[in-house]
Amino acid sequence: MDYRACWCSRARYTVFDAHYGDGSAIRVLTDVWNTDPHRSPKLHVIAVCDHLLPGFHRLPQAEPGLTVDLVSAPLDEALAQLTARVDLFRLHDIEQAGTDFARHVARVAAQDAHLLAQGLTPAQIDALTAQGFVFDAGGQHARFASRKPRAPVPPAPERRAIVLGAGIAGAAAAERLCARGWQVTLVDRQPQPAMEASGNLAGIFMPLLSKDDNVPTRLTRAAYLYALRHWERLGGIGRAIEGDTCGVLQLARDADHADVQRAIAAGKSLPPDFAEWLERPAAEALLGLPAPDGGWLFRGAGWARPGSVCDAMLAACGGRLERRFGVGDVRIERTGERWRLTDAHGATVACAPNLILANGSGAVAVPQAAQLPLTTLRGQVSHVPAGMVPKLPVVLCREAYLTPAAGGVCSAGATYDADPNPALSPESHAENLERLRGLLSDPQAARDAPLEGRVGFRCVAPDRLPLVGRLPDFDAAGTTERLRDVPRHPGLYALLGYASRGLIWAGFSAELLAAQIEGEPLPLEASLVDALDPARFVLRARRAPRGPQSEN
């Protein structure tokens, strides 16, 4: 097939390959694209790959305009969860896939999409034909000719945005938009980035495990794996980013909890470089300290200073980023088709058609976001002199965490309470130290550690999942029952609710939001995208049981 004739007039060309194999076919395709002076500006390749952890995997590429997603799932499931418009399908090595996939192919097919087939069964060809594909005489090429109406392609957005909040969420939003050619104004009340919740000396990055591989587990895994790949493109942990991929050892809470973890490990679905269950002898040999019930070793995990991650992302924005820091609290209003931010004196701080709220719990001060059920939770971290605790080869965690020393300090914490006081609390410090001693199995560890540390405030949603997407209009929602029908505020988006996992949520959520705004294929299963949609709270509020009604 002559790809050049197909993509020369397209702003974006999307290919779906049913079998990644060794990747050679994808490399040939991208080589052709790279050498064609008339190519589409953007090539998006989505391929089913059977040797990765379950889910969608977005792989950062060196070539501008090239995006590669690998999907580890059965073919019909991969297509069913795909949010995209596909221009070319390559269907091969799928003789055992049945025929259910055909309706999903038709759902995501662009108008006049092409299909290259190799080895399809007669039943599969018949199923695709019934969905609107017209095959040539050899049964190896087809064109999508369905007359069913297709959803119109939305117009390209005006690529100018304001991002409110220069912590890790806002820095990631700016970087992901600038990478797509946007002009971004980053606004923060503080004089420097990462001065609030993102200002801690160390944040922990690690995945989450569960026996049923539930929604939080799948989302956290996707975000964690994307973060590791994305940080490497930014220069890497320990180089451009201050931190260490030393590994994280998550100790079991007790014998019963260890039994649950062994059941997860017995499934043998987790590669050891991602997560490995260590029984007591192996855990203690690694740690050099008691680990009575064993624990999970996450070899690729570790710690990073969030501010350095912000710095790396902002540096990658280049000249497309305008920084407006130290502006204090701002007033937000919609004027015509623009969002306008003004300072306390009424002077314009920024004006653009798109506004992204990445300012944590401060977002509820914006009238359009006031009904979001966000909570502010205080987190105090204790800074413990390195000489007061054993030298750790890994981050150690259970209900709390303790990092290896950096700059002569180990970070221990963090508390989780509703206290609005930003000052260091002796009670919170004592709580951190008590948990530290439990981690180390040493009641004398860090005895008389000075009251040193930092307080930050997390933004938390009721379901402990982030809010990623266009903000709903609560007042206009009426009796809407489906997410896609919830009315939205024009050009207003959220990157909120990262709780204590901002390090891994930031880049992935920003990538997802940027893809949504641009109308690109999304880097996540459709059902998980819905789980992050801010409009989920519109539907939940309506479905909540009401109290007894009085009778008149």
Automatic annotation (TrEMBL):
The keyword Flavoprotein applies. InterPro entries: FAD-dep_OxRdtase, FAD/NAD-bd_sf, tRNA_S-uridine_synth_MnmC_C. Residues 161-515 form the FAD dependent oxidoreductase domain. Gene3D superfamilies: D-Amino Acid Oxidase, subunit A, domain 2, FAD/NAD(P)-binding domain. SUPFAM superfamilies: FAD/NAD(P)-binding domain (SSF51905). One of its GO terms (biological process) is methylation. GO terms for molecular function: tRNA (5-methylaminomethyl-2-thiouridylate)(34)-methyltransferase activity. Keywords: Cytoplasm, FAD, Flavoprotein, Methyltransferase, Multifunctional enzyme, Oxidoreductase, S-adenosyl-L-methionine, Transferase, tRNA processing. Its EC number is 2.1.1.61. It comes from the Bacteria. This is FAD-dependent 5-carboxymethylaminomethyl-2-thiouridine(34) oxidoreductase MnmC. It comes from Telluria antibiotica.
